[in-house]
Automatic annotation (TrEMBL):
GO cellular component: cytoplasm
Protein family according to the UniProt entry: Belongs to the PRAME family. LRRC14 subfamily.
Name of the molecule in the record: Leucine-rich repeat-containing protein 14B
Keywords in alphabetical order: Leucine-rich repeat, Repeat
Superkingdom field: Eukaryota
Length: 519
């Protein structure tokens, strides 16, 4: 992969490639060359040089997204390289920036922004070892705590205590790193490196711990809040959260599965739902909402109508929506602004075909991502689907795994998909004719992999050939049987797996005790 580099950047690469020489010569380097040298060092994975550049950073701000993004000197975007060597060198360099009393540069640094780092599935760094969001949270918290201990024990220059650097970061907290992060947040006032949480993701935490740490993060700065998987947040807890904490800048909210269940609603619950809707309405920046795997039948309007700002992203997958819900969505002011929509797990062709296509037509001019997994889309629906997707000229991503479509129908659909100019990613199902006759949909996990793999490979080749013949090599087509890649889940799957085994064991023990009592 060749990318355009300026002569300046090529010179910078040559300079940092000899780490020993570069580190000795940094004192003579002009301030405005530091960003150039940083990106060159990051590209070549020169950890020691990265450390020293950050330790002696002469500028007011240090923005990872801008430093690693495409520039005139080097068009390659490195912000998706979460290289462990580079990021660890960067963060330890930041700690040593505070401690270094002999640096020839005046300490001007005020803001460090780590939020521009993107976690992706395929890494191009040579070390092949990544540092994900959870590990970055862990390391920064550890360095802040160590820094405080050192400053309290050592004889430091009085000027060191006057250093105040805001470190903007997307925190990811689970049971395993909870205590460390809490300590760093509690001592934020006395630490020169001040953690400023812009986005917060929590998983595998008790509600008590979640409520405690969310207050420590300074929610007034929070732009994104993800409460996922093993945080057992239900509707009454969500109401308490919104009543006790204000999120004035919140733009994106993800709630865990089963937050809502309207099947067991009382009059009190209806009022609670209205209160939650009103509280979300006060979040004037909120444009992204994910509420998958809740039961929201007939209540979408009650939740979304108080919102003052139109949603750009909505995930209501597996939420048991009825015709009234779909009609509200199709006619709401959100419809014309939706850039990402997930309606997976709803029998669209059977329940509300015309209303769905009305919604699709309203968001077609802006829609970038559409997910329709396990929606019972069959061969007879493909022509209608093509008609509905035709105006979606900005569509970049289309995911529709789990639908009972034949090889022939997929080829027909792919021929059309080649015509969508912005399309980059397609996730398609294993063709129905690759499974044994009589397979029922949605397919259970046990039967998911029991298909003719050789036949699937042949069909996948034919589908890729359709893309190739249409000069659409830029489109990635795949069948992730167990869902799309999730960097956060991938990074913490050992902890989550251990938690699930523990929960299963506890449930089994309770069952055994109950059974023994009955006996």
């Amino acid at each position: 992969r060749t990318t355009m580099k300026s002569l300046r950047f090529i010179s910078a690469e040559a300079f940092v490639s000899n780490a020993e020489f570069a580190r000795k010569s940094l004192g003579a380097v002009a301030h405005d060359l530091f960003p150039l040298l940083f990106k060159a060092s990051y590209l070549l994975e020169q950890g020691e040089v990265i450390h020293d550049l950050v330790e002696n950073w002469p500028l007011f701000d240090f923005n990872m997204g801008k430093l690693l993004g495409a520039t005139l000197d080097c068009q390659e975007d490195l912000s998706h390289r979460t290289c462990s060597v580079c990021l660890e060198s960067c963060l330890t360099g930041l700690r040593d920036y505070v401690l270094n009393q002999s640096s020839p540069y005046t300490k001007k640094l005020k803001v460090v922004d780590l939020t521009g780092i993107k976690d992706v599935e395929v890494q191009f760094c040579k070390c092949k070892k990544t540092m994900g969001r959870w590990a970055r949270t862990q390391l920064l918290s550890k360095l802040c705590s160590e820094l405080l201990v050192y400053l309290q024990q050592a004889q430091c220059n009085p000027g060191t205590f006057e250093i105040s650097i805001s470190v903007l970061i997307d925190l990811f907290v689970t049971e395993r790193n909870y205590e460390l992060v809490v300590q760093a947040l509690l001592k934020k006032c006395s630490c020169p490196l001040k953690i400023c949480c812009v986005a917060f993701r929590s998983d595998n935490l008790t509600l008590q711990k979640f409520f405690y740490i969310i207050k420590l993060t300074d929610p007034s700065l929070l732009r994104k809040l993800e409460i996922v998987h093993n945080v057992h947040l239900e509707m009454e807890h969500l109401e308490i959260l919104f009543n006790s904490i204000h999120f004035p800048l919140l733009m994106s909210l993800t709630l865990p599965a089963r937050t809502f269940n309207v099947r067991r609603f009382t009059a009190t619950d209806e009022q609670m739902l209205s209160n939650i809707g009103e509280k979300m309405g006060e979040m004037t920046q909120l444009t992204e909402l994910s509420m998958s795997f809740s039961i929201l039948t007939g209540r979408i309007q009650k939740l979304l109508s108080p919102l003052k700002t139109p949603l750009k992203m909505l995930d209501v997958s597996n939420c048991s929506l009825n015709h009234a819900d779909m009609a509200y969505l199709a006619n709401s002011f959100h419809a014309n602004h939706l850039e990402a929509l997930d309606l997976s797990g709803h029998d669209i062709p059977e329940l509300y075909p015309s209303t769905f296509f009305k919604l699709l037509s309203h968001c077609s001019s802006v829609l970038r991502s559409l997910t329709l997994e396990d929606c019972n889309i069959q061969d007879t629906h493909v022509n209608m689907l093509i008609l509905g997707l035709s105006p979606c000229q900005k569509l970049q991503e289309f995911k529709f795994i789990g639908n009972p479509l034949s090889s022939q129908a997929l080829k027909h659909l792919f021929t059309f998909l080649c015509e969508l100019p912005m399309l980059k990613n397609v996730e398609f199902p294993v063709p129905r004719d690759c499974y044994p006759i009589g397979i029922t949909y949605p397919i259970d996990d046990a039967s998911l992999c029991r298909f003719d793999h050789q036949k699937y490979e042949r069909v996948a080749e034919e589908l890729n050939l359709i893309l190739l013949q249409a000069n659409r090599e830029d489109v990635k087509a795949s069948t992730p049987l167990f869902g799309s890649y999730d960097a956060a889940v991938q990074e913490t799957n050992n902890e989550l797996g251990a938690y699930l085994i523990k929960s299963f064991k506890e449930t089994l023990e309770k069952f055994t005790i109950s059974f023994n009592k009955m006996s």
